[in-house]
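Lecture 7 notes: from sequence to structure.

We start with a single chain of 70 residues. Read the sequence below before looking at the structure.
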Amino acid sequence: MTDFKFKTNIKCGGCIAAVTPFLDKVNGIEKWEVDTANLDKVLTVTCNLIDTFSIENAVKEAGYNIEKIG
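Now the structure, written as tokens:
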């Protein structure tokens, strides 16, 4: 398993609810969470994926910004 971190604009429970069906469709994701208290609204994804394209695409499809950290 690998942890990937992303800066997002997912800022509240409603945003999390909106993005959930998109991230839940991505095969290989074990778990994910958004730290809405962090200024950068950090999304942490634990998964078996080699690249982050499918994660980034899912968040963008949901209508949110995403940028990989590190």
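Residues 2-68 form a domain with the Alpha-Beta Plaits fold (CATH 3.30.70.100). Keep this in mind for problem set 3.
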